[in-house]
Every structure is written in structure tokens, then in C-alpha cells.
Specification:
This protein is mainly beta. The protein has four helices and 32 strands.
């Protein structure tokens, strides 16, 4: 793969954003600092690069206007699902098909909703409440709702099944209390509670080996405190009695391969599952990322990795896989820390840091919500407090290695509560009707453009938003130039400056990915799906 490591005497590339929606291109994109400046005048409308269509008119209550770590919105294809809250005791999920506008309402949750997410491969929606009760639904093409699996973390009397023996408190809450004592910075500045005390769910982005598979594997993971529970919905559904509306945790654990649990030493911050469901990466508050091998009915520890150059825990981890087109998985990843303001790119063979981008601002904005679009071409930072969307373009070199290519600031007039991208496509300027010209309704620009389609939630509505950004020019940069210690940083913006970077730290293993299943990270093919059967080298 060549020498891609971020070297110690490399220069830092600096740029400023002042509210303009023009493209800010990076020269090398290896080490970038972006400063958000205060805008000179108040906004009176959305950016001219935005076209929006109202999908639903709904006024959220005041408690939902405060950004939290709870997921409010999830989008997959033409379906979207979002939380509704009428008062403190009633919660529901609205499911909407954005083309036909058909809709359904799901109610009857046992506790407050904290997370919801669509499966990437099937029309399945998973909802998680504050007690970790899991609700999985199949949504028909006509937006009909069919119950699939309901896994309860409580017994018939409503008592949680995972209790600490001596105190009766839930294990997740005890973990959060311990973490808060050891690390006061883990407290969520917005909600006032521990940042990792609430359960979260993560789907496996499953990609079958065959082009026309006979069946799909439906697998997800639930994290709560220090524990991760891998749930094979396919196994669980087959073993449930016909007509059974739910199964409790004790019953699910009696089914081989249905629920697998792994306990970490520190509260969990993030999780990723490989697209072939054979490996899992878990980040925790200590700053480590632990890798596990998922077998048929068990989970085996593989190794730990402490990301070089990062000084705080990994809050989000994205493997930059275009699962719709690529055969190679887990070759490169992006780790996020500092409340969504620092992004790090790594190659996953030797875990060298090959890129870094930091967002700085004097304004007291809250945490940025970070997502990667389905094609892994854009990183989107949603600035809820500032009503901004920062579109960061990724450039992929001949080796497949990514780098930061450019950034565009998109400003909105109304506050943004949530935003979720579902499609990215290139726009032909000669045929596109999308226009920034109010006179003739047709685009006159000859610049290459990309349209990012997303769903946005404002305090009063759900919107279908199309954002068009200029495409950065392709950089045909060889690997030797990527690793050059004296790469010239162009004065792209008026505030461009240079400074030295910090030396990277060492990872736990020189080549830790060799401990994972061999078809992970190999571009030559998917492999046979063989799993490691012994403990040697682990």
C-alpha cells in the first residue's frame, strides 16, 4: 500500500469559512484546520444551494429541540422514520414513504425512545427504548407495518433483567456512574447526564456473497454501558413460536446464536460491524478500539487499537466502504473525536494516520453530528446550534487511499434538529434543471456539481432537501507525494498558515488486521466467509 504515514514535519493547511457557500478546495488534504468565523450579517433565507420540499408539517415539543445523543431520524431509500412526542408519557414513530407520501404510525413503546435505525438491505426498522427493549418491524412497499421481533429486557413485572446483584441498579447506569467519577468530562454538556449512559443500536450493513442470495442475514448490536449484545434476528425469528408477540432476554439466550454478549472494561462509545458479519470494532471511553471475531454462536477477542494522534475517545467510527460497488472492506476508516470537530483518516493494515481535519470556532456551538454518505464520498457535519451543514468531499487516490479534498458551508435560516443523507449523485450542468439563477430557471454554470439528497427536521416540519455543491478537481497525487515530508501547502485562502504536527503514537500491533478474517480488507474478493476456529495468535 506504500508509505502513507502522516509525518512529523508536515505542514498544516489552514482555511476559514465565513458563511459563503462556495467551494473551499484543499491543496493536499493531509492535515487541515478549518476555522468557522462569525458571519458579517444575519441570515434571511437558506443558502442558494438549497432546494427544499415539505414532506410533513409537525411541531415538536420543546424537549426535542435540545440536541442530544439520541437519534431522532433515520432514512433508507425512499423510507424515513422519525420520533414523535406528544407529551412526557406518549411517544410514537412516524414512518413515511417520501415519494407516495404514504405514512404509518407506530405506538405502544414501553419506555422513552432513544434510538431508531433502518437496515441497509431490507425494509426493516429497529427501535430501541431507554430500557433497551428492542422493537423490529417490517415495512411493506405500501408503508404497512408488520411486527417482526420484540426483544424485552424486562420481565412480566417490568423489572430489568440485567441488574447488579447488590444494589438492584441497572448495569448501564452503574457503568455511567463509575465513568463519570473517573472522567468528569464524559458528562453530556447538553443533557446534563452521562454521555454514554443510554443504549444505542447498530445494524450490520450486510452484503451477501452471492448476487442473488436465497436469504438475508439480519443482525444488529445493542450497546449499554460496558456491554455489547449482538442479536441475530434471523435466528431469533426462526426460533420464536408462531404468533408470539415478544421474547424476553432470558428466553433469547437459550437459543443458540441468537444473542451473544461481550463485556468491556469501559463504557462503549461507538461500534461498527463488518459488511460480511464476521468482525466487529468497538470504541470505549479509554480511547481504545477493540476488535472481535463474530462466530456462529460466540464472539472472540482479536486485538486492541489506540488511534495514533487522537487524544480523546473515538465517538464515531466509519469504515469507508462503498458497499454497493466495492469488494474490499475495512481498508480505510475515519475516526471522530472532540465532539465531532476532529476527523482522522487511517489505513487499516498498519493503522497509519493518513489524514486529519480539525474544525475550530470561537462560537460556543454544541457537538457536530457526523455522518458519511452511502457512497463514502462525502462527510457531512451537521451544526445544530449554528444551523449549518458542512459538506466535506473525500478524494480517493489510485491506491484507494482517501484524503480530504474540499469543504462547502451550507447555511440554513431555520434551526436544524436532525439531518440524514440518503443519496449522492453527480449532476450534468447541461441537462440539470437545478438552478441558482432566479431569472430563467435553468442552470448556466459549466462547473461539475454533486447533488446531496437528505431529509431534514426543523422545529415545525420534515423536509426533503437537495443540496448542490461544486465538485473539487481530481487530484492525481502519487503515494510518494502523499508521504512527502515537505509537501508544499498552497495559500488557498487568505488565512492560510503553516505549523508543525504532533508525532503519531504507536498502535498495539504492527499489523493487527491479520488477526481478523482474511477476506476483510482484501480487494481480490469476498472470500469464502471462513471464520477463525482457533485461538492461536489472538
Amino acid at each position: 500500500m506504500g508509505d502513507l504515514q502522516l509525518v512529523t514535519d508536515q505542514l498544516v493547511e489552514k482555511h476559514s469559512l465565513n458563511g459563503s457557500d462556495g467551494l473551499v478546495a484543499f491543496t493536499t488534504g493531509k492535515d487541515v484546520v478549518v476555522t468557522i468565523e462569525a458571519e458579517s450579517s444575519p441570515r434571511h433565507r437558506d443558502s442558494s444551494r438549497v432546494q427544499s420540499t415539505m414532506l410533513s408539517d409537525y411541531k415538536w415539543d420543546g424537549t426535542q429541540l435540545r440536541p442530544t445523543s439520541d437519534r431522532l431520524l433515520s432514512v433508507a431509500g425512499s423510507f424515513l422514520a422519525y420520533r414523535l412526542s406528544h407529551d412526557s408519557s406518549i411517544e410514537a414513530v412516524r414512518v413515511l414513504e417520501r415519494v407516495s407520501r404514504q405514512r404509518s404510525l407506530i405506538k405502544g413503546f414501553r419506555d422513552a425512545i432513544v434510538d431508531l435505525s433502518w437496515s441497509r438491505t431490507t425494509n426493516m426498522l429497529a427501535v430501541l427504548d431507554a430500557s433497551s427493549n428492542l422493537y423490529v418491524y417490517h415495512v411493506t412497499e405500501e408503508c404497512g407495518i408488520e411486527k417482526h421481533v420484540n426483544l424485552r429486557w424486562e420481565d412480566e413485572d417490568g423489572c430489568e433483567l440485567l441488574k447488579a446483584p447488590s444494589t438492584g441498579a441497572t448495569l448501564a447506569n452503574l457503568d455511567a456512574q463509575e465513568e463519570e467519577k473517573e472522567n468528569p468530562s464524559s458528562r453530556n454538556s447538553t443533557t446534563g447526564g452521562p454521555a454514554y449512559s443510554r443504549p444505542r443500536l447498530f445494524w450490520c450493513p450486510y452484503v451477501p456473497e452471492d448476487e442473488e442470495p436465497t436469504e438475508h442475514l439480519n443482525m444488529l448490536a445493542i450497546t449499554r454501558g460496558r456491554s455489547v449484545h449482538i442479536i441475530n434476528l434471523s435466528v431469533l425469528k426462526c426460533a420464536m413460536r408462531d404468533g408470539a408477540e415478544y421474547i424476553d432476554l432470558a428466553g433469547a439466550r437459550e437459543i443458540e446464536g441468537a444473542v451473544m454478549t461481550e463485556q468491556l472494561e469501559h463504557p462503549i462509545t461507538t461500534l461498527c460491524m463488518s459488511p460480511d458479519a464476521t468482525a466487529m470494532a468497538v470504541g470505549d471511553t479509554s480511547g481504545q478500539v477493540s476488535f472481535f471475531i463474530i462466530e456462529v454462536a460466540s464472539v472472540k477477542f482479536a486485538h486492541n487499537w489506540r488511534p495514533a494522534m487522537m487524544t480523546s475517545p473515538v465517538k464515531d467510527l466509519f469504515f469507508l466502504d462503498n458497499v454497493d460497488q466495492g469488494d474490499a472492506f475495512w481498508r480505510f476508516c475515519m475516526a471522530v473525536d472532540e465532539e465531532g470537530r476532529q476527523l482522522y483518516l487511517y489505513e487499516c493494515e498498519n493503522w497509519s494516520c493518513i489524514g486529519r481535519l480539525r474544525v475550530e470556532s470561537s462560537m460556543k456551538n454544541g457537538r457536530f453530528m457526523v455522518q458519511v454518505d452511502p457512497t463514502a464520498r462525502y462527510v457531512l457535519l451537521t451544526d445544530i446550534d449554528g444551523a449549518n451543514l458542512f459538506c466535506i468531499a473525500l478524494d480517493y487516490h489510485a491506491s484507494g487511499a482517501p484524503s480530504f479534498a474540499a469543504i462547502t458551508q451550507i447555511g440554513f435560516y431555520h434551526p436544524i434538529m436532525a439531518a440524514c443523507a440518503f443519496d449522492v449523485k453527480d449532476v450534468d450542468p447541461h441537462t440539470s434543471d437545478f438552478s441558482f439563477d432566479d431569472d430563467d430557471g435553468h442552470s448556466t454554470t459549466e462547473k461539475a456539481e454533486t447533488m446531496i439528497s437528505l431529509i431534514s427536521i426543523t422545529p415545525r416540519s420534515v423536509l426533503h432537501v437537495a443540496v448542490t455543491v461544486d465538485k473539487p478537481e481530481k487530484r492525481d497525487c502519487p503515494l510518494s507525494e502523499l508521504a512527502s515530508p515537505r509537501a508544499t501547502i498552497g495559500m488557498v485562502s487568505s488565512s492560510a498558515e503553516t505549523s508543525a504536527t504532533q508525532p503519531p503514537s504507536e498502535s498495539t500491533h504492527t499489523n493487527p488486521m491479520e488477526l481478523l478474517p482474511p477476506h476483510i480488507m482484501h480487494a481480490s474478493g469476498r472470500g469464502s466467509g471462513a471464520r477463525m476456529e482457533d485461538e492461536e495468535g489472538l
